[in-house]
Write a structure and sequence with these properties.
One of its GO terms (cellular component) is plasma membrane. It is built from 11 helices and 3 strands. It is mostly helical and 310 residues long.
């Protein structure tokens, strides 16, 4: 399908064309990306090595940090490099790969957040059956299904992108490749493709957001029967999850549930959910979670002790 297109590469306009502002973008993105890698990889290492973080909640948190790392990596490194270039170009194949990776890891994060909500529901509302329902085997199967679902979603995005004929302008007014900006360059009627995009990405974001908010409302309502200490601990965990859900889903819903029109704030909103959310997630989960903080302290102290022995 690519051979039918006259366009072999695209020009990414990025966030700005001003040279000074491009340097600012470079510095901010580099700092945010390094902080994202540090925070998420620290959580991954902590959960992997800690003997106390073996519950399903941390099993899912491990994969959330993994998806955050990959999701940010699919966008940030190229944006950082492009900020140093006078003209940033991306080949058609690289653009398609970026669309796939962006939607794969973004969709994986959505499914992992749903699994985390399900885990909290079972833990709080059905505590006596928790170990049976959320066994390691069940959790592994759920994560595997999340990977398969994400792959299916991303393949649909690729199919939609490859079905677009590009025969004219090749300038993308964005800092990464996505189906929305690509639709504006297609030299054919995009009504059906845009409808499919909204029914795919838009529906996944909106339905998942509604399910997550409803599930946490049910969870919070059920806390009235718990002890004060139990309510405090469960409330702290749920507030962390709700914060992550709002930060990730609200921008996504704004971007993927409307016609293929461009608004001035689109780029900044995209920055928020592609760069900001993966950066905030480690902070939200570590600052509000005593068990994770204690496990991190043990990991650091263990490393310092081993260094001293050497």
């Amino acid at each position: 399908m690519q051979l039918n297109n006259n366009v072999t590469e695209f020009i990414l306009l990025g966030l700005t064309q001003d040279l000074f502002r491009k340097k600012v973008v470079f510095a901010i993105f580099l700092i945010c990306y390094l902080a994202t890698l540090l925070g998420n990889l620290l959580i991954i290492a902590t959960i992997k090595t800690s003997q106390t973080l073996r519950s399903p909640m941390y099993f899912f948190l491990f994969y959330l940090s993994f998806s955050d790392t990959c999701f940010s990596t699919s966008i940030a490194p190229r944006t950082i490099v492009d900020a140093l270039l006078k003209t940033a170009t991306i080949t058609f194949s690289e653009c398609i790969i970026q669309v796939f990776s962006l939607h794969f890891f973004g969709c994986l994060e959505i499914f992992i957040l749903i699994l985390m909500a399900a885990d909290r529901y079972v833990a709080i509302c059905k505590p006596l059956h928790y170990t049976t329902i959320m066994s390691r085997r069940v959790c592994s199967i759920l994560v595997a299904l999340a990977w398969v679902g994400s792959c299916v979603h991303s393949l649909v995005q690729i199919f939609l992108a490859l079905s677009l004929p590009f025969c004219g302008p090749n300038v993308i007014d964005h800092f990464f490749c996505d189906l929305e900006p690509l639709l504006n360059l297609a030299c054919s009627d995009i009504y059906v493709i845009n409808l499919l995009l909204v029914s795919n990405s838009g529906a996944i974001c909106t339905v998942s957001f509604v399910i997550l908010i409803f599930s946490y409302v049910v969870i919070l309502h059920s806390l009235r029967n718990h002890s004060a200490e139990g309510r405090r601990k469960a409330l702290s965990t749920c507030i962390s999850h709700i914060t992550v859900v709002i930060l990730f889903f609200v921008p996504c819903i704004f971007i993927y549930t409307r016609p293929a029109t461009t608004f001035p704030m689109d780029k900044m909103i995209s920055v928020f959910y592609t760069i900001g959310t993966p950066l905030f997630n480690p902070l939200i989960y570590t600052l509000r979670n005593t068990e994770v903080k204690n496990a991190m302290k043990k990991l650091w102290s263990k490393n310092f002790i081993s260094d001293d022995v050497r």
